[in-house]
Design a protein that fits this description.
Radius of gyration: 15 Å
Structural class: alpha/beta
Number of strands: 6
Strand content: 15-25%
Order of helices and strands: HHEHEHEHEEEH
Distance between the termini: 33 Å
Largest sheet: 6 strands, mixed
CATH class: Alpha Beta
CATH superfamily: Glutaredoxin
Low-confidence stretches: 12-40
Protein name: Putative thioredoxin
Family: Belongs to the thioredoxin family.
Signal peptide: 1-29
Number of helices: 6
Number of domains: 1
GO molecular function: protein-disulfide reductase activity
CATH topology: Glutaredoxin
Keywords: Redox-active center, Signal
């Protein structure tokens, strides 16, 4: 098990290194523009280890979509405004939890995140099995995916 964890950590480190090498302007500008600490949408919250249990309590009454991403990840930056828009449109039926994998490594490990962005639907404190969405495939695919998760109950 620890060998697997080491390989996963090495893989994430390689992706981070490549992203910072290939996208230096994005990596420098991202902390100011992509910070998850000042999310204004009512149904969107930055999730950390400190508030994770509170978010899981919310999952007992509504669908929680955990968005695992990073400020240096271009698809993550494309996904974020669309996800915030849809969270507002669904008018309280979902809560989007933004998880910065660089800040909350423990949550990334708990959910075994391998690719960014990864959306994880959670209901009653448990991940809906076989329901992850990896990558950003556009607004219409995202809306269809959210509707499918809501239909599961």
């Amino acid at each position: 098990m620890s060998l697997l964890k080491n390989w996963l950590r090495a893989g994430v480190a390689v992706v981070a290194l490549l992203a910072s090498t290939l996208l230096p302007a994005a990596a420098q500008a991202a902390p100011a523009a992509g910070s998850n600490t000042h999310i204004s949408a009512e149904n969107v919250v930055a999730v950390t280890s400190a508030n994770y249990q509170q978010v899981m309590e919310v999952s007992k009454t509504k669908l929680v979509v955990l968005d695992f991403g990073a400020s240096w990840c271009p698809p993550c930056r494309q996904l974020k405004p669309v996800l915030e828009k849809l969270a507002a449109e669904y008018n309280g039926r979902i809560l989007v939890g933004m998880v910065d994998v660089d800040v909350s490594r423990d949550l990334s490990s708990r959910y075994r995140i391998q690719y960014l962005p990864t959306l994880v639907p959670v209901r009653n404190t448990a991940e809906l099995p076989g329901s992850r969405m990896i990558g950003f495939k556009g607004e219409s695919a995202l809306r269809t995916w959210i509707d499918a998760q809501l239909a599961k109950g």
